[in-house]
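Sat 14:20. Reprocessing the chain from the morning session after the first attempt stalled halfway. Input below, unchanged.
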Amino acid sequence: MPNLPDVVLWSIPAFVLLTVIELVSYRIHPDEDAAGYEAKDAVTSVGMGLGSLVFDFLWKIPIVAVYTALYELTPLRVPVLWWTIPLMLLVQDFLYYWQHRGHHVIRILWACHVVHHSSRKFNFTTALRQPWTSATSWPFYLPMIALGVHPAAIAFCYSVNLVYQFWIHTERVGKLARPFEYAFNTPSHHRVHHASQGGYLDRNFGGILIVWDRMFGSWVGEGEKPVYGLTKNISTYNPLRVATHEYAAIARDVRRASGWRERAGRVFRGPGWQPAPTPAGATGEAPANAPAGAAPATAPATAEHAA
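Finished this time. Tokens:
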């Protein structure tokens, strides 16, 4: 097994330090145009992050078993060397783009990811607001296993990606130098991703690199001030409800569905999907607990309808 460091564990002191600095900066130089901090919201985000550590540990048991089985079956092997690690990071970041995009356009996956978008604030604690059902992410990295990348190397790459994304959850950093903004994910790009306005929905999915969004048509630059959260926000700070509210909404919609086609659509179509209007007239509105960017019934189910 490759001897790779636990980058998340080593980064915790930096997370704490940056959060304290950001919080103090709002105290010293308040910004009325920024979302800033709210005590209940920050506590909920931290609580979601701590809970995700516990649940991620449990989810890793079956995931590691599947990864290990596939790794043993493939004849390919990618050595963990100084020059292969950047290549593995590049491939993992590419697959992360599709994982992230998929978690916005398939409702059952969005039910996991919506947790991260449920805060109406945008600060370093928002980065900690992580889901408790992250087992939905593992299938996206099976190609790396099949190509002979060790499961521990994939975990390392995923952790590096996660750590990188911590610093982009802030309003205290403006736009950076153009070459950096062109290639890398930045606070400016990620503010767009967390915004709930129509023009910003389903944009900027990149993890470390933003070039994937430029290549696949999902990039939008920051213009108007973002409004964070969901298009239909939840009014709770209860971590259990934050973690499960969209699953509950899916269950309600499936229970009310008129047939199997509609039931499948409620689970596997886009978060704002609605069945075709009946002659009696359907409003085309999104479900009562629709996630960010839920589209009306007349809108196509594309990658542009979830925040």
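The chain is about 55% helix and 0% strand.
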